[in-house]
Design brief:
The chain is built from two helices and 27 strands. The chain has helices at about 1-60, 400, and strands at about 70, 75-80, 85-95, 100-105, 120-125, 125-130, 135-140, 150-160, 175-185, 190, 195-200, 205-215, 220, 225, 245-250, 255, 260-270, 275-280, 295-305, 310-315, 325-330, 350-355, 360, 365-380, 410-425, 430-440, 445-450. A five-stranded mixed sheet has the order 2-9-8-4-6, with no helix packed on it.
C-alpha cells in the first residue's frame, strides 16, 4: 500500500507540472495575439517620422546652393599704394537651370585690414548663365595712395544665393565664391644685414657687437635703437642671466641714402652671471616698408659654463698596444652675423691618464682636425616680411621669394657649425686605466679610446 501511495503522488505531481506548462504557453500566445496589432500601428509612424527628421536636418545645416564652378577659387595679389591689378575669373553653370550671376565682394572677419568695397570692380556686373554655359568676369583691384600697408582678405561672391553672414567660416569654398587676398606694400629702403646677435660669453668679461644697416633708398632715414622691455617670465622658466643694464647701445640718428651705418652694442657680463639672456633691440626705423616687428633684432647670450673639476672615467685595456684618444667638440655658429666678438672660441682640452700601475701618463698631442658647414648666400640678408610664414605667399615672383629687396646677386659664404677633433696617443698596458679631461671654450665634447694601432 505504501508503494502505491508513492506512485500516485508522483503521478499527481507530474500532472500538475504539465498543466502549468500548458497554461504558460497559452498565456504567451494570448499576449502575442493581443499585442500584434498595437505594435504594428506604433512602428509605422516612427519610420515616417525618422525620414522627415533627416530631411529637416539636411536643410538646416546645408543651405540651398547652385551648381557653379569658379576658376580660380583663390587669388593672391601684391599691390603698391596707388597701383592696380587685373585678373580673370571664369564661371561655369553645372546646374540644369539658368542661374543669375551678380558678382560682389563680401568682407570677411579673417583679415588684418578691412578692404573698401569700392576698391574692387567686376565686369560684367550681371549675367544670366544658361546650363553648361561659361562666362569670364574681369576683376580690377585699385589701391588708393593713402591705403594702409598690410594684408587684406575678401570673398568674391559670383551668385546671389550666398548665405548671409560669415560665409568663409561655416561654408569655406561655398559654390559660386572665390577667396581674394591682397598684400599692400612698399619696397623697404633699409636692409638689415645683421638679423640677430647670438654669442657664447664668459662671466666678468666685456664684448662688443655691430649691427649693420644699409640704406638703398634715395632719402636719409632716421633710426632710434633701444632695448625692449625685459621679457616677463612665468613660473618654472629660468631667470635672465643679467638685466638690460648690462647692454649699452650706440647708434647714429639717421642712415644717409646709399650708405651703411653701424649700431654698436657693448655687453658687460656680470661676474656672477649664470645661465642665459634673451632680449631684443627695436631699431625704430622710420621706413614704411618695414613692419614694426621686422625692425626687431633678437639678442641671445649664453654664459659659458666652467666646470670646477675635470671629467673622469675609466676604460679597460685588453692588450698592451698603444692608446689613441680622440676628442671631438662642436661649435654652433656663435657670432655668425656679428664682427665684434672679442674672444677665441676654439675648444681646448687638458688631458691626463693614470695607467693600471697607478702612474700618471701625459698623452702626446698628435694633431687637430677641423670640419665645418658652409652656405653660399646673397650679398644682402633678405628682409623677412610678416606674411612669409604662409605657404601660399611663397610663389615665384612674390616678395617672399625675392626677399622684398634688390640685390646684386653676389654670393658670400656663411659658416655654420664647426667641429674640432684633437688626437692624443700614449704607450699602452693591460688593465684598467683612468681618463681625465678638462675642457675649455666648449659646451660639449665626446671622446673615443682606441686600444692598438689606430686607423688613419
Amino acid at each position: 500500500m505504501r508503494i502505491l501511495d508513492i506512485k500516485a503522488l508522483k503521478g499527481i505531481v507530474y500532472g500538475l507540472l504539465v498543466i502549468a506548462v500548458l497554461s504558460v504557453a497559452c498565456a504567451g500566445a494570448g499576449d502575442e495575439d493581443t499585442a500584434a496589432i498595437p505594435v504594428k500601428e506604433e512602428v509605422q509612424p516612427k519610420v515616417v517620422a525618422d525620414t522627415v527628421s533627416s530631411s529637416s536636418y539636411a536643410g538646416d545645416y546645408f543651405p540651398k546652393f547652385e551648381k557653379i564652378k569658379v576658376d580660380p577659387t583663390y587669388k593672391y595679389l601684391e599691390i603698391k599704394p596707388g597701383d592696380s591689378k587685373n585678373f580673370t575669373v571664369t564661371v561655369e553653370n553645372k546646374d540644369n537651370k539658368t542661374i543669375q550671376l551678380k558678382p560682389k565682394p563680401i568682407i570677411t572677419p579673417y583679415t588684418e585690414n578691412f578692404i573698401n568695397e569700392s576698391w574692387i570692380s567686376i565686369s560684367p556686373s550681371e549675367k544670366a548663365l544658361k546650363p553648361g554655359e561659361k562666362q569670364e568676369f574681369q576683376v580690377k583691384v585699385n589701391i588708393p595712395k593713402d591705403a594702409d600697408l598690410g594684408s587684406y582678405a575678401v570673398l568674391l561672391a559670383l551668385t546671389e544665393k550666398v548665405p548671409e553672414g560669415d560665409v568663409a567660416g561655416p561654408y569655406p569654398n561655398f559654390p559660386g565664391t572665390m577667396q581674394l587676398n591682397i598684400q599692400v606694400w612698399v619696397k623697404p629702403s633699409i636692409q638689415i644685414l645683421t638679423p640677430y646677435v647670438n654669442d657664447l660669453v664668459e662671466a666678468g668679461k666685456n664684448y662688443t657687437y655691430e649691427i649693420k644697416l644699409r640704406n638703398t633708398g634715395i632719402k636719409d632715414i632716421t633710426i632710434s635703437p633701444e632695448l625692449t622691455k625685459d621679457i616677463v617670465y612665468s613660473m618654472g622658466m629660468p631667470e635672465q642671466a643679467f638685466g638690460d643694464d648690462a647692454i649699452r647701445v650706440e647708434a647714429p640718428d639717421k642712415i644717409k641714402a646709399g650708405q651703411t651705418a653701424i649700431v654698436k652694442l657693448t655687453l658687460a657680463v656680470p661676474s656672477t652671471a649664470k645661465g642665459s639672456y634673451s632680449g631684443s633691440i627695436d631699431l625704430n626705423i622710420d621706413d614704411p616698408g618695414i613692419r614694426e616687428y621686422e625692425r626687431m633684432i633678437s639678442l641671445n647670450f649664453r654664459i659659458l659654463p666652467v666646470p670646477e673639476k675635470p671629467y673622469e672615467n675609466t676604460f679597460e685595456a685588453g692588450t698592451d698596444g698603444p692608446i689613441t684618444l680622440e676628442i671631438r667638440a662642436n661649435q654652433y655658429g656663435y657670432g655668425l652675423y656679428t664682427t665684434g666678438g672679442n674672444r677665441n672660441l676654439t675648444p681646448s682640452f687638458n688631458v691626463s691618464l693614470i695607467d693600471p700601475s697607478g702612474n700618471k701618463v701625459t698623452p702626446t698631442f698628435v694633431d687637430t682636425k677641423y670640419s665645418g658647414s658652409v652656405t653660399i648666400v646673397d650679398d644682402a640678408y633678405p628682409q623677412p616680411f610678416y606674411f612669409a610664414s604662409y605657404p601660399f605667399f611663397r610663389g615665384e615672383g612674390s616678395m617672399a621669394a625675392t626677399g622684398g629687396i634688390e640685390t646684386k646677386n653676389q654670393g658670400s659664404y656663411q659658416g655654420g657649425t664647426t667641429t674640432f677633433i684633437k688626437t692624443y696617443t700614449a704607450p699602452g698596458a693591460v688593465g684598467k686605466w683612468n681618463l681625465s679631461i678638462f675642457p675649455e671654450n666648449t659646451e660639449n665634447f665626446d671622446y673615443t679610446v682606441t686600444i692598438g694601432a689606430a686607423g688613419k
